[in-house]
Design a protein that fits this description.
The chain has about 775 residues and is of the alpha/beta class. It is elongated, with a radius of gyration of 32 Å. It has 25 helices and 13 strands. Helix 11 packs across helix 12, helix 18 packs parallel to helix 19 and helix 20 packs parallel to helix 21.
Length: about 775
């Protein structure tokens, strides 16, 4: 049983203080200033810990738990003056209510972010892992608990609860871990999320049944039946009345417009009403909030609006306070009562058996039946065994319910802390999502046969980007003899949901969402395919994921579709008048990540707003050639464009003066000459191809010529040449604003350049 305390309350309650200068009643004797001070101190200590521990790779949860232990009975709580002010019963009640409110909102947000549609499309592998990873540790952990109870420590009747707690696989914990590890939308991450959804819903069902069963033991059978029927009716009302009402709200919201505030207020009121109802039915308040969150359609416009309004306050303030206040109730100074150490040892035995069972349940079927690599199977087992916020909340509920004492609660918190610290480190060592992009096959344009199908992956963020990509593809002159296969990937930021989504629009009927994604992009690309009559084959995909992880979707699709060239838009956009319209840093970060990891060649398209404005006129394209892999790749793409009768191609070859030392190797010079041969001597077979040589002495002279060229062409193609030192570009690198564009690309994309010419910066395949 929990400890019993008597406390005296003064009425009317003291809320606001009379100031720090009132000697009789200081501000900390009033509830509001005391609550503000508690929140301030808790958050300050948490971030002080995290400032140090994040350099060791430890997550925020560890800092929150350690801060709570320091501020609670295990640390400063032993100081009488501190404990009388900071952790007295009255103040703990107030901050405890606030922290429980924070956890209730957290569970609601977790329910909103969870995509229920994934359950219907979960593969057999993820479904099996989700069920076995719950049942195996539950059964083996319960068996270990019963054995310890009967053969070793007869007073440990709480051990089954420990086994149940450490068998859970909470979806919010798994989603948070995968996000921290930046593998949320990797192949392993998607499987872990699908398995976690299955496991979490099964555990919620079992937990609900156990609570109802316990109610049946304490009450009459009639009362228990009323509770069962009440919970069932509540779930049916939420999903068959409230959920359709929220879809009606979405229909009332015009596309691209925010949801009206009155609907947001109504849903928040519904959240508290659902929590109240389930509490009346014998369930915890958080259960009603979570179920109601599951009923909210995830993603925009409704789910994302709710997450945007609530998530910041909950994740930054309320949840850290909740974890810290839970950890404040631990006590590391264990009493020396006889048998206490045996009790703690039995507790750890059950925890270790549950952990080993969960690892084995993931490892054995995946390795021996699904032929998954051992390291990946171990990593998945560790991910499914991860502990976090929800586990701490379950443990504090067991303690407050009197099912475990403070000593066992402390050992469970310590085990959760060790798990949260070690599991991310081990997963990083076992699983590297970028290793699959390295290969031995050449995937670039220069090694692609002239008559072979050119496989291009084009990334778009919005309709305007799709138009620019289509214009560039038109320059590529797709024909039946030289066809192009285009895989268009529409990238959408993940908002209001926890699970990333990848949709193939070739299989629209099997998608998991009722939302209409990429409709405008799909129409534009289908029109392009029809206009090219069999010369261009278009496949459209949609990826909804966090901006920091979008490069995984791009590189994985390029790898799976055997793409030889990826086209990504520049983060800066110009309008038709030539002024800068937008500058989006997340897109720039994405481009840099793709440049580092791409399994094939890649081009960054800088569209200044007039790319391909008139299809009836000739298009003037220039390729600047300085030499090297990237320049040879850009010239190979330009040669394909030259086959179009509407394209006039000019190749400008920059050469250093004879008295300047050339740092290019003989082998590289030979490869450059071989690539230029058909252009230089007019053997390419196209009349509208011109070759110009420019001899320069240094970088500034090169820049002067390049800037003067910019207004003469519709499109200029250059190689990235990142990290290559050459007398042709000496002195220019130091002034680069965007290193990802290379020296010449940065020069042509400069905001002060008076030009409407678009630029394509090409980097040849690096992952070899």
């Amino acid at each position: 049983m929990p400890e019993q305390h008597m406390s005296c309350w003064e009425f009317p309650p003291k809320v606001n203080s009379f100031g720090a200068w009132n000697k009789e009643t200081g501000p900390l004797k009033f509830s509001l200033p005391l609550l503000q001070m508690q929140i301030l101190v808790i958050l300050a200590v948490i971030h002080t810990f995290h400032f140090v521990l994040k350099r060791l790779g430890l997550p925020m949860l560890v800092s929150e738990i350690l801060a709570g232990m320091l501020l609670g009975g295990s640390g400063l709580g032993g100081i009488k003056g501190y404990s009388q002010i900071f952790i007295n019963i009255e103040s703990q009640n107030i901050i405890g209510i606030l922290s429980i409110l924070g956890y209730t909102l957290y569970m609601f947000i977790s329910g909103v972010k969870m995509d229920m549609g994934m359950i219907g499309t979960t593969g057999k592998k993820a479904l099996t892992v989700g069920i076995i990873s719950l049942l195996a540790p539950l059964l083996l952990g319960m068996a270990a608990a019963v054995l310890c109870f009967k053969l070793w420590f007869p007073d440990a009747d709480y051990l089954p609860f420990v086994a149940v707690t450490h068998s859970l696989t909470p979806f919010p914990v798994i989603a948070s871990l995968l996000g921290d590890l930046k593998i949320l939308n990797s192949e392993l991450g998607r499987m872990a999320l699908s398995s976690a959804i299955v496991s979490d819903l099964c555990s919620i069902f079992l937990t609900t049944v156990s609570i109802v069963a316990r109610t049946g033991d304490e009450k009459t059978s009639g009362t228990a039946m009323v509770y069962v029927v009440s919970v069932a009716v509540f779930v049916l009302v939420v999903f068959y009345i409230l959920r359709p009402a929220m879809f009606w709200v979405i229909k009332q919201t015009p596309e691209g417009r925010p949801v009206k505030n009155v609907f947001i207020y109504a849903i928040i009121l519904g959240l508290f009403a659902c929590g109240l109802c389930t509490n009346l039915f014998g369930q915890y308040v958080m259960f009603g909030a979570f179920i109601f969150g599951l009923a909210v359609p995830d993603g925009p416009p409704l789910g994302s609006a709710l997450v945007e309004k609530l998530d910041t306050m909950v994740s930054i303030v309320l949840m850290p306070v909740f974890i810290a206040t839970c950890a404040m109730r631990t006590n590391l100074f264990l009493d020396n009562k006889k048998g206490k150490w045996e009790e703690i040892l039995a507790n750890f035995v059950v925890i270790l058996v549950s952990f080993a069972a969960k690892m084995g349940a993931c490892f054995v079927p995946l390795v021996y039946f699904c032929k998954m690599p051992r390291n990946d199977a171990l990593a998945l087992g560790l991910i499914m065994s991860a502990k976090g916020t929800v586990n701490i909340a379950t443990q504090i509920l067991l303690r407050d319910s009197g099912l475990v004492d403070n000593t066992i609660f402390t050992t469970m918190v310590i085990a959760t802390t060790l798990n949260a610290a070690i599991v991310p480190f081990l997963v990083k060592k076992l699983y590297d999502p970028s290793r699959k992009y390295a290969g031995y096959q050449r995937r670039n344009i220069i090694h692609c046969k002239a008559s072979a199908e050119l496989r291009i992956l084009a990334c778009v963020h919005e309709q305007q980007t799709a138009t620019s990509i289509i214009n560039l593809l038109d320059f590529s002159n797709p024909t039946r003899d030289n066809p192009i296969s285009i895989h268009v990937l529409h990238l959408i930021e993940l908002v209001g949901r926890a699970t990333p989504l990848f949709i193939s629009h070739d299989m629209q009927k099997t998608t998991v969402s009722n939302h209409s994604y990429s409709e405008n992009v799909l129409l534009a690309m289908n029109r392009y395919q029809r206009n090219n009559g069999g010369a261009a084959l278009v496949h459209v995909f949609t990826a909804i994921s966090p901006p920091k992880l979008m490069h995984e979707d791009i590189c994985t699709l390029a790898l799976n579709k055997l793409a030889v060239f990826i086209i990504i838009p520049f983060h800066r956009k110009w309008n038709a008048s030539g002024s800068i319209e937008s500058d989006e840093q997340p897109i720039r970060n994405l481009n840099c990540s793709v440049l580092d990891m791409a399994p094939c060649s890649i081009g960054i398209l800088v569209d200044r707003g007039k790319l391909g404005r008139s299809s009836s006129q000739s298009v003037y394209i220039a390729t600047i050639f300085l030499g090297g892999n990237d320049d040879r790749e850009s010239l190979a793409y330009a040669k394909r464009m030259a086959s179009s009768p509407n394209v006039n191609l000019t190749v400008v070859h920059f050469l250093p003066m004879e008295d300047i030392e050339n740092t290019t190797s003989e082998w590289e010079t030979m490869l450059d000459d071989e690539t230029l041969k058909d252009i230089k001597y007019g053997s390419l077979g196209f009349e509208q191809v011109n070759y110009i040589e420019k001899v320069v002495k240094d970088g500034p002279q090169t820049a002067l010529i390049v800037r003067s060229m910019a207004s003469q062409y519709n499109l200029i193609i250059v190689g990235r040449r990142y990290g290559i030192e050459s007398p042709l570009t000496s002195g220019l690198t130091e002034w680069s604003e965007f290193p990802e564009l290379g020296t010449l690309g940065d020069l042509l994309a400069a905001s002060d350049l008076d030009s409407t010419a678009s630029v394509l910066i090409v980097q040849q395949q690096r992952q070899l």
